[in-house]
Structures are given as C-alpha cells and as structure tokens.
Amino acid sequence: MFAAELQSWLDDPVAEKFPYDVVVQHFHDVGKHFVRPAELKLLADARDRLPLLRGPWEHVRTLADFLSSALDKHDERYDYPTYLALPLLRQPTVDDPVDQAPFVRARCDRLVVHLMADALAFEIAAMDGSTALLPKMRPTADRIDKRCKHGLRAIRPALNRQSLHSGLTASEPTVLARQVSTAVRADMSLAEQRVIELSVLPVYTAHDEYMFLRVLQVFETTFALLAVQLRAAVAALAAREVDWATQLLAGSRTALVESAPLFSMLATMQVESFRTFRTFTEGASAIQSRNYKIVESLCRQPDRERLDSAAFVSVPDVRKRVLLGQKTLDDAYREACASGDVAERDTERLGEAMRRFARALVRWRNTHYRLAVRMLGEATGSGYTAGTPYLAAVRTSPVFHVVESLTRCE
Fold first, then answer.
1. CA neighbours within 13 Å on the CB side: how many for 275?
2. 73 and 128 both lie in a single domain
3. What CA–CA distance (Å, rounded) separates 16 from 289?
4. What is the DSSP string of 228-269?
5. Among positive and negative, which fits the CA dihedral 94, 71, 282, 372?
6. Which residue from 318, 334, 343, 320 is spatially nearest to 402, judged by alpha carbons?
7. d(CA 150, CA 144)
C-alpha cells in the first residue's frame, strides 16, 4: 500500500520527492496487473499534477515516464513499449542527429551493462535468500548458475569496452556475477541507478519475469543501436563514404552476435512460469517492437503484404516512414554501384559486409523462432498475433534484395 505516502505527496507535489520506493515496492509485491483501481487513481492524480510541477525538467520527465508505464493497464493502452518501460531507458533513436552515430555504441554498452548487471544481482539475491521480490516459482541454484553464465557471456565485450573488467577475477559464474554487479553498481550515477530501479514493473510475482523483462530491454537496446547505425550507413553511402558504411555494418553485425547468449539465458526460463505470467501480458508483444521494424525497413523496403500486416500496422510511425519513401541500404547500394563513383573492390567489400550482417540477422530470427516454439508451443501471440506460425512465416524473409540470393537460405 502506498496511499498515505502518495496522498502526502499530492498535498505538496515536487518531482524529486515522489515516493518511488513505496510505489515500486507495492507493484512488485502484487504485480502490475493486480494493483487496485483506487491506488491507480491516486497515481493518475499524480500524473495530472505534472504540468504544474516545479524543479528540474529531468526529474519531471523521469516521473512522467514512470507514471506512463505504471498506468498503462489503467489507461487501457498497455503494450510492449510500456511493459518494458522503454521511455525511461532513454535509448538512442533513429531520429538522433546522424553525426552522433560514432558515440552510440558506448551509450548502448553502458545501458546494456546496467540492465544485465541488475538481472544478475536479482538472481544472486534470490539464490542467497536475501530478497523477497517476485517469490513465486523460484528456480534452482543450478538454473541460476546457467543464467549467470549466459548473461555474463552476453555483456563481457561491453564490460571490456567500458573498462569495467579489471577486477573481474572469478571463474565460477555466480561468483563472477557478484563481482560484475558490484563493479557496475559502483560505476553508476545516482540518476542511472534510479532508472534501473524504476524500469522493471512485472505484471505478476513469478521470479522469471524479472529476467524476461531485462533480456527484452537489452534486445531493444541492441536494435536501437542497429537502427542508428544502419541509418548512418545509408547516409555514409550517399556521401560515398564506403569505409564508414562498412564499419557501421560490421558494428551492427557484432552487436547481433554479442546478443546471442541472451537467447540461451532466456532458454533457462521455466516454461510453467513463463506461461503463468504471460497470461497477464495480453496486449504486449514483441511484434510491437518499433526498433526492430526500423531496422527491417532500413535494410530494404518491406513488401506490401508485410507493410500491411499487424507487424507494421502496430508501429504506424515506422510504416509512415516507409510509405513516404525512406531511403534503405538496398537503395543506397544500388545508387552507389550505378554512380561510377565507387571502385569495384569497394562495392565488393560493401556487399560482403551486407551479407555478413544479413546472415547474423537471419540467425537471430531463427533462434528467436526456436525459443518461441519451445516456450509457446501452439499458443497464440500475446499481441493478438498467430504466435509461432507468424514467426515461422517471416524468419526467412530476405534481409536485402541486392544480396538476397546469398543470404536468404543461410
């Protein structure tokens, strides 16, 4: 219960003094799906105060983004972005200035490390018996050990790039996970810590949903990175900067490859647990991932059938970009080759970078499909889709047309 604390705040509303801790604790105690209407009404009253709040804008913005996620079911607008609290994470976007592309890798590395270190810390705390958070269907110690191993594999390259690896001496996964969590936490600002604390509001109280949320947030961060880098690659080709375009494609491929262990981590999820909390996620589905559709549509223009499918209808702003003639890597490659401005050896090098990226993305799709089959079986998708038959239908779709014959079946 947080009624008393929130009512006190409503009497003197200041963004920095919002009672986040008791509100988040209550959501964790009962699950977002089960927060009572009277309590949600108080949060809605707090949201109504936002335009009048004084103090630094950053504090007001954080509160607005938190309340947007907390009230999504109350407002009947619950979906994938609000379930994952994506606005709170401040991910880079495809609309950021293209000259920021060189810095986006470090920005995403930092967020990925924060998200995964927090997931590992939760698993360790549960194994130690030092947390009562999400107590239902606790996994065994062996399962937690496997989760730590795969999670650490996923973020080890980012830890190295962030220079957070020097004190990581353990070889046993759970011990190393403790070291990572401690090192990452010590490196975070107070604002970064607050974002991590506010950005996980499970719908139920099953243990595995915490990991599920964090892994999906990391995947979304990865595709945010890809969206920025692929847009920059299109711009680089327009300027005939083949070296830079090739580097961006290589970096995007690397990001996909580095994220692969997250599927192994998700595979440790207990099927019964997943199917239990999934009951309360109806309306939120990865089909609504804006960043994934941006990446897909930056590679080549989607076929009309795909563009009119639920996948793109669920992200109308991305669909509009395509309909307005968004430039793609397919377009940029053709134009560069036809211009006569690019040497043959450079077009071959660029084509190979596109093929390597395409192979990595097709592998990502196939792994996603296999995991979904394991977890969902024949169940329908939570975003009002056909579920695994939908994934099966799109997993072999060509990433590019200009190199399609070399990537479609790999």
1. 12
2. no
3. 31
4. HHHHHHHHHHHTT-HHHHHHHHHHHHHHHHHHTHHHHHHTTS
5. positive
6. 334
7. 10
Q: Say if residue 282 is in the same domain as residue 205.
A: yes
Q: What is the CATH number of the domain that holds 199?
A: 1.20.58.480
Number of other residues whose CB lies within 10 A of the CB of residue 294: 26
Q: How many domains does the chain have?
A: 2
Q: Which of 286, 287, 91 is nearest to 199 (CA)?
A: 91
Q: What is the pTM of this model?
A: 0.94
Q: What residues are paired with 136 via a beta bridge?
A: 206
Residue 285 is predicted with a pLDDT of: 87
184 vs 97: CA distance, rounded Å:
29
DSSP secondary structure string for all residues of 50-115: GGG--S-HHHHHHHHHHHHHHTTTTTT---HHHHTTHHHHT---TTS-GGGHHHHHHHHHHHHHHH
Distances (CA, A) of 111 to 104, 162, 199, 278, 290: 11, 11, 12, 26, 18
Query: Residue 409 has what pLDDT?
Result: 32
Q: 356-375 as b/e, with b when 16 or more CB fall inside 10 Å?
A: bbbbbbbebbebbbebbeeb
Q: What is the pLDDT of residue 379?
A: 57
Among positive and negative, which fits the CA dihedral 372, 377, 380, 385?
positive
Q: From CA 181, how far away is CA 319, in angstroms rounded?
A: 39
Whole-number Å distance between alpha carbons of 51 and 55: 11
Q: Is residue 127 part of a domain?
A: yes
Whether 90 maps to a domain, the answer reads: no
Q: What is the pLDDT of residue 64?
A: 98
Q: Are 46 and 9 in contact (CB under 8 A)?
A: yes
Q: Which residues of the chain have pLDDT under 70?
A: 378-387, 390, 404-410
What gap in Å lies between CA 210 and CA 327, rounded to an integer? 38
Is residue 139 within 8 A of residue 272, CB to CB? The reply is no
- What sign does the CA torsion over 409, 250, 343, 401 have? positive
